[in-house]
Amino acid sequence: MTITIALPSKGRMKDDASAIFERAGMKIVAVGNDRSYRGRVEGADDVEIAFLSASEISRELGSGSIDFGVTGEDLVREGLANADARVEFCARLGFGHADVVVAVPEIWYDVDTMADLGDVAADFRARHGRRLAIATKYWRLTQNHFSGSHGIQLYRIVESLGATEGAPASGSADIIVDITSTGSTLKANHLKILTDGVILRSEACLVRARKAGHDGDPVVARVIAAVRGVL
Amino acid sequence: MALINLPAFADALLAEFESLGTLRVDTPVIQPAEPFLAMAGEDLRRRIFMTESETGESLCLRPEFTIPVCLRHIEAVTGTPKRYAYLGEVFRQRREGGNEFYQAGIEDLGDTDTAAADARAVGDAMRVVANRLPGRRLNVTLGDQAVFEAVVGACGLPAGWQKRLIHAFGDQKHLQKLLTELAHPRTVGVFGPEVVRLSMDGLLEDEARLVAHIGETMEATGYSTNASRSPEDIARRLKEKMELANTQLDRKTLDQVGAFLALDVPLADAPAALFAFAKKSGLKLDEALVRFDARVAALSKTGADIGAIRYRAAFGRPLDYYTGLVFEVEVDGIQAVLAGGGRFDRLLTLLGAREHIPAVGFSLWLDRIEKAIASEGGAQ
User: Fold this and answer.
1) Which residue range(s) make up the domain with A8?
2) B225 and A170: CB-CB below 8 Å?
3) Minimal C-alpha gap between A51 and chain B (Å)
4) pLDDT reported for residue B301
5) Beta-carbon neighbour count of residue B298 at 10 Å?
6) Mind listing the domains of chain B with CATH numbers?
7) What is the ipTM of this complex?
8) By CA distance, what is A169's nearest residue in B?
9) Mind listing the pLDDT tens digit for each residue in B28-63?
10) Closest by Cβ to A112, choosing from B174, B192, B217
């Protein structure tokens, strides 16, 4: 069977992913020119490479139209309900590190834990006439963390697709859920991470779509073993 | 509208609602989404069907009737008391069953005799379910948040802790976590380094200076939009939080709360069991218990089969507009709630009513009742 592996189509993620596959003995060459969105593995006719955007990779893994993908764990867990039932995280690749965190204004001296936030959220409507507003693009991760893990239901999500860290200062939201790698953007915007506010420690992963045809497929087993072997 | 899927017993049910002295109301299927999300929380978003109007207003397909019926009541300004009945389709994404199904129910708004109104809601719900499923044994579970609030209040906990526990009532896992935390307070990561600095500067003892300091810092860092929490809000809760952090629940009180939450007795025995609990624990629960007893007495008067009802102390709904009674009706042999209801005294003011309007109601899952009827072999 021919299997399809999707890799990020640009930037550091693309270079880092290609480097790992090359170390694993699967050198990737573009089909046609350098900027082509299709590739193949040198010396392996049973593997196809598709270059996609990171969020597309998570979606295609969910629909099962690709067999493997390299993308951030955050995008997979955000994009797919019941992610663990639908995909397998085969290997953590050691690059693309980013934490999905709950961050509040530094000036909220009284809020350092999710329990504090729960108290503030419970009273918010009575004091401000509206629910606590959270700016984020991570709807699912936010809901799971707030209601699933901490019993907090009373908040509203304000969708934010960019410059999320600026939302509290501009007044469009009270707090944020966003990714951070060094924390410097949070600091520059006078935000702090709650002590139990790390929702997910994400990094790039080799992810397999759970498909019935994969059981006992030697190509599938070979890809996993090769990548794991060089980590 | 295609009504082919309307349950066969719909007409009989509506006639019964009418005989119970209710006013039938209907509400549009397409509703503004905001009130549902504001009342039930963000979790609902994934379970309702949302769309947007041309002008960008968030709309949804009616996920339930209570909020639209209450909004309609507030808009109509017709005065109370009022007993409304409804029957219609609701739309929700469910794990089991279809995404569109029928619900019917009664909302009882403005009756100040809460014991009688509670009893009527439970009694009516039991009666209409029993009439659809004659000969089947009902199993009713009843809970009361007001009793839990009284227990927590009598334990002498600071107001902040009481609020936390009451807020978690009905969410067993979260409540347990809070109680564990109360017994073994966290010491690490509770206060940030900033608070330690404030404390060394003596700002924590001087609220006026603290407020001024927070205000200045906000100004300097660009956080003074007035859209969010004010310096006063932050200073006040910081004080409250220090009180919370210094609270530790002793073994005895923790055991008492645990013993209370474990109560699960036939309703007829519940007043005696609660009285015995209050006596043994030494907690003053008089007012809540008087109300509880009055409700049980009123229930007996409605002629409802009290023997079918169990009181479970830990049973509640973790939604902040539920205030007292909650109940669920099932029948033997079917693992599904056929009717559910409760008291929601806070909902109408949250929705914008100018005066306080006590409210209690229940709704019936008509698709599940149909299934239950079918499972007994096509009777009725």
Assistant:
1) 3-96+203-229
2) yes
3) 31
4) 94
5) 20
6) 1-136+332-380 (3.30.930.10), 137-184+249-326 (3.30.930.10), 193-245 (no CATH)
7) 0.85
8) B223
9) 999 999 999 888 888 888 889 999 999 989 999 999
10) B192
